[in-house]
Every structure is written in structure tokens, then in C-alpha cells.
Amino acid sequence: MPGAIYAEGLVKTFGDVRALDGVDLDVPEGTVLGLLGPNGAGKTTAVRCLTTLLRPDRGKAVVAGLDVVKEPDAVRRSIGLSGQFAAVDEYLTGRENLQMVGRLYQMRAGAAKRRAAELLEQFHLTDAADRPAKTYSGGMRRRLDLAAALVVSPPVMFMDEPTTGLDPRNRQQLWEVIKDLVSGGTTLLLTTQYLEEADHLAHDIAVVDHGRVIAQGTSDQLKARTGGERVEVVVHDREHLATAAEVLRGFGKGETTVEEHMRKLTVPVTGGAKLLAEVIRELDTRGIEIDDIGLRRPTLDDVFISLTGHLAETATETGSGTGTDTGTETGTGTDANTGTDANTGTGTGTGTQTGPETTDTTGKETTK
Amino acid sequence: MSATTDSLVIAHRNLIRMARIPEMLIFGLIQPIMFVVLFTYVFGGSIQVGSSSSTQAYREFLMAGIFAQTVTFATAGAGAGIADDMHKGLIDRFRSLPMARGAVLTGRTLADLVQTALTLLVLAIVAVLVGWRTHENLGKVLAGFGLLLLLGYAFSWIGALIGLSVRTPEAATSGGLIWLFPLTFISNAFVDANQMPAFLRHIAEWNPFSATVQACRELFGNLPPGFEASDAWPMQHPVWASLIWSVLILLIFRTLAVRKYRSATA
After folding, report:
1. How close B265 comes to chain A (CA, Å)?
2. Mutating which of A14, A69, A97, A103 best tests the B interface, going by the most B Cβ atoms within 10 A?
3. Least reliable range by pLDDT among A1-15, A24-38, A250-264
4. How far apart are CA A163 and CA A175, in angstroms?
5. H helix and E strand count, chain B
6. Residue B59 in contact with residue B183, Cβ under 8 Å?
7. Which pLDDT score, from 0 to 100, does residue B194 have?
8. In chain A, what residues touch B98 (CB-CB under 8 Å)?
């Protein structure tokens, strides 16, 4: 039984560019799928195909049990779309916008009016309801846009980067709204470049790059694929790096990454806190002084790097540019695309943890 | 049924926008009013129409031409409005809704028709103030305005097609206006076409725009004394010619525009 959103082998080309290169998706009813990927990965094109805005060149797409290509009008009655750019008429008031959308969903005037009032209340826009939308703040416009997508309480929702460009407070607010919505049983496909957002909202995450889904699973599964936990050590003395690396290799389940000028070593491990204690003891025995040590779970950044060989675009804004390059050069990410071995992809793109102060990454090396 | 409702909902939306951006309507009025004043007082005494060179005869002759030119400027408005819509996120919302496909365009052109009617009303009042009079019964005068509105509506579909074909609203505005000048000047709108060189006269006589102007002059009773319409069929049967031209333009450009809209981003 295919899910509420189902796609098989979707292909869409624009000239020479293969925006979608065989996308398969299956979103069970009442769940949230996060489509995660950098700009240009094909997320928006996928959403546009699934919402009847674009006709796929090849492949099959079924939304709410209806074929997207064969029954576009029936699909349109069952979906709500909230786009990347708040799609509201800025000269109309919030109320007029929602009433118009209701009427275009073929509601009667009275029903559209009542529904608009309800939504304005629900999205805390009642005070601004009769002001033109161009006077709204960015967050208010997004809420209005989302409200417009919910006019008929569609069983299937699509949100294309709903929080891009919002400040953290507005993003938090919008997340709460989305969570409420999903708890009511709506099936949602959400695209995002924010790893944190996918982690926060989605049951399942599909990582997209170059028009393909390169990995899919729960956040935990994806993180587990990337090699479970990591021990991170910062040694006090640069001379001790080699010895420390030797120690870590003894405990590690994968490649040990060394960031020389940060004096930091990272290695994937299994064994949790007990193992961490052993590592500390061993380092102590060898007389290696440490500034910091800790156990951390892989972030979705790690997942993304290990899968694609490069950082998600948003991550590069905070990390240094050279960090990205290094990630690609040492990238064993291509192995990860095909392999299922959890450890193949690690050790690449250590730029994730580098702060803005990290400018010299040439000192990095990967040891086996 | 849904197509009608959807078009009206979109027309309503565009009318609200026009009401909130009144400068559009005001600028749309300035140009024709300027033409009325300039042609009446600057050229009025020196242009001969029919056998008359009286200022009053030219004044009455001129108004149908200016009215007709004004309604065709709706082309630019429709074009700019649709080009603007197509490049905002709102169009994706419309396209993802279960609404009639042509409604976005029909709604826009209907709203422009309302704006054209308002502009004509104001312009007619100004015309009366500078001395324009009609000499036929009210029914005929209203029929004349009906033909003008039909011409304006047909032209707004040309604008719609232009708006769908260009990248920016600015391009749609200039693209909608630039060809209107030769079209409206190589016509009988401002001068008596009988006095043009032969080849220009033929263009002027078969110009769709001239048919409506001539029809209005007949219906308003504004033909100057001693004026003899040429033998060209549209000038002999201007009301029919005007209707046929307008309906033809409407059908052709509506079909092309709706097709273009459907394939615009697919």
C-alpha cells in the first residue's frame, strides 16, 4: 500500500540540467518526511512535481491516492502548499487573502469567511487581520502563507523551506505550529537546508543531492550509519598528537581524524561512557595532558558530510570555506553513496566543528 | 460555473489592489486628459476635418479618437499586472489550487475593464467640460461606449499575452505601449484619414482601431459637416467592423494567452 505521498523514478530535466534524476519517495499517512539537501539539490523541483506545478519527464507520483499527472485537479483539492517565498498578495489584508484562497478552493463565500476568521485566530493574526499583508513582518507573512495552505485542512501538506530567512524566534514559533498540525494527522513533506529543522520536525529524513535521494531513514538511523558515537579529544601539547592518535586507534571503530592546529582528535566508537573512561585512563598512563575530552553523538552535519562529501550550504556559512574544500578532497563520501558500511564515510570534512577562527585547515590529516 | 466564480474572485482581488494603489488610476487618467486639452486648444484650430475647420467640429471629431486610444492603453496595465503576478510566489499558490486555469487572466482583464470604464467616465466628463457634445439619442451614445469597452477588453488580452511573454512588469508596460502609438496615429483618430497619402490611408481605413473610432463618431453624431466616409468596407459599416475586429482579437489573443499561461512553468 503506497503512502500518502509516493514517488517512483521521478525525472525532471531543464535543458542540460537533470534537476531530478530518479527520485523515489514513500511517505506513510500521518508522518513527516524531511527532504534535506543543499541549494540546487532538487528539493524544490521535487515539491513542484508533487504539487502539480511541474510535469515530471518520467516516473510516477501519487499524492493522496491520486496520480499527479493524470488527475492534477483532484490532487489540488487534497493538498496544501506553503512555498519558499510567502505566497500572499501584499496589497490584500490577511483576511482578504485567506478568503480569496478559500473561494478558489471552491468554498462558498460564507464558509470561506468563517474559515478565514478561524485561521487568523489560530495563527495569532487576528489583530493584524485587516491590515494589508505588506505591513506584516517576515514571520507574520510566513504564518499567513501557512494559514493559506491550510484553508481546507488538506490531508497532505507540502512546505518548501518554510523557515528559510526567519530569525530564530520566529523559526521556533513556526516549528510549534507545524508540530500541532502534524499531531492532527496531516501527512507532511517538508524541505529544508537546516539539519536541525529536519531533526526536529521529521519522522523520516531523505537526504537529497544532485537530484537523487542518497539516503533515507530516521534521524537516529542516519546518525547510526555515520558511525554511532564519537570520542573527541583536545590534547594540551601538539607533540602529543601522534601518541594520542595511536591510543585512539586502539579504541576506535573507524578512521581517526586529526585537526592539527586545533590539537583535536575524533574517532567513532562504540561502548559509551565506560569506553570513555578507559580512553582517559590510557591517555593518562601515557602521560598525555588533555584540555578537553567528550563523547558526542554524530550530528546531521556529520551525516550530510559523510553522505555527500561536502557540507550542507547553510553549514558553510558558519564554517570556513577551506573547511568545505578539504571535506571534498578527502571525501570518501562517494563510497558512502553506495555502501551501507557505517564507517566508510567518516573522517571527511572535519570542518563541521571548526569555528570561524579556523582559517588554516591544511594541517589536517586523516590517519588509518 | 467554477470558471466564472474563480474569475470573479480574481477580478475582485485585482480591484481591491487597484483601490489600494490609486496612483495607477490617476496616472492612467492624466495622459488622456492631457491629450484632450492639447489637441483641443493647441491643434484644434488648425486641423481641418471634412469641410470644416471650426474648432468645435474638430473638438467633437477628436473625442472618439481619444476615447478609443485611452481604452487600448488597458493593454499595458493588464500586461504589467500579469507579468508581476507571474514572477511572484502567488502564482504558485494559484496554480496549486483547484481553480479554473484561465481565471487568473480573465480576472485580471475583467478588473482592467472596470478600470477602463472608470477612466472613460472621468474622461467623458472632462470632454463635456471642454465643449464636447453628442447629437444622437442616449441609446446610441451608450452603444458607442459599449464598443469602446469591448475594444479595450479585447486589447487587454493582447496585454495578457505580452505579460506572459516578458520577464518583468516594466518590459510588459513598454511592450504594451510601444506599438500602440503607430497603431493609434496611423488611423482616423486625430486627423481625417481621407487627407492622408494613399498607402497610409489604406492602413488607416483597415486599422481595427479606426473602425471603432468611426463607429463612435456615427453613434455620437460627431461626424463633421461635409465629411464623406471612404469607400473601404470598414468605413462604410464601422459598427459591424468594430464588433468583428474586437471579437476576433478577443478570441485569438485569449486562446493564445490561456495556452501560454498553462505552459508557462510546466
Report:
1. 7
2. A103
3. A250-264
4. 8
5. 13, 0
6. no
7. 84
8. 73-74, 76-77, 104-106
> What integer is the mean pLDDT of A247-254?
83
Please tell me which of the candidates A73, A81, A96 has its beta carbon nearest to residue B98.
A73
d(Cα A65, Cα A6) in Å, to the nearest integer?
9
With an 8 Å Cβ cutoff, are A104 and B98 in contact?
yes
Per-residue pLDDT of chain B (266 residues; tens, 9 = 90+): 588 999 999 999 999 999 999 888 888 888 889 888 888 888 776 777 877 777 888 888 999 999 999 999 888 888 999 998 888 878 888 988 998 888 999 999 999 999 999 999 999 999 999 889 999 999 999 999 999 999 999 999 999 999 999 988 889 888 888 888 889 889 998 888 888 898 999 999 999 999 999 999 999 999 888 788 888 899 999 999 999 999 999 999 999 999 999 887 54
User: What is the C-alpha separation between A103 and A85, in angstroms, rounded?
Assistant: 22
What A241-246 contacts at long range (C-beta under 8 Å, 24+ apart), as own/partner pairs, is: A241/A265, A243/A286, A243/A288, A244/A283, A244/A288, A245/A367
**A346, A254 contact by CB (below 8 A):** yes
How far is Cα B173 from Cα B109, in angstroms, rounded to an integer? Answer: 15
Nearest CA to CA, how far is A54 from chain B (Å)?
Answer: 5
pLDDT over 90, % of chain A: 33
pLDDT in tens, A349-363: 333 333 333 333 333
Summarize the confidence of residues A108-137 as an average pLDDT: 94
Cα(A346)–Cα(A336) distance, integer angstroms: 9
Q: Taking CA A314 as the corner, what is the angle to CA A308 and CA A320, rounded to the nearest 5 degrees?
A: 85
Chain A residues near residue B2 by CB distance under 8 angstroms = 106
**H-type alpha helices, B21-89:** 22-38, 55-72, 74-86
**Cβ pair A97, A141 in contact under 8 A:** no
Report the chain A residue with the minimal C-alpha distance to residue B9: A100
Whole-number pLDDT of residue A107: 93
Give A74 to chain B, closest Cα distance, Å. 7
Question: How large is the angle between the packed helices A138-149 and A109-122, nearest 10 degrees?
Answer: 140
Contact B98 A105 (CB under 8 A): yes
Give the residue numbers in B contacting A (CB under 8 Å), as ranges. 2, 5-6, 9, 12-13, 16-17, 20-21, 88-99, 103, 265-266
In degrees rounded to 5, what are phi and psi of residue A343?
-100, -10
Within 8 A of B90 by CB-CB distance, chain A residues are 87-89
Task: List C-alpha distances in Å: A343 to A172, A205, A300, A348.
Answer: 34, 20, 15, 11
Distance CA A359, CA B146 (A): 73
> pLDDT of A179-199, one tens digit each?
888 888 899 999 988 878 888
Nearest to A86 among B6, B89, B266 (CB): B89
Q: Is A221 exposed, middle or buried (0-12, 13-18, 19+ CB in 10 A)?
A: middle
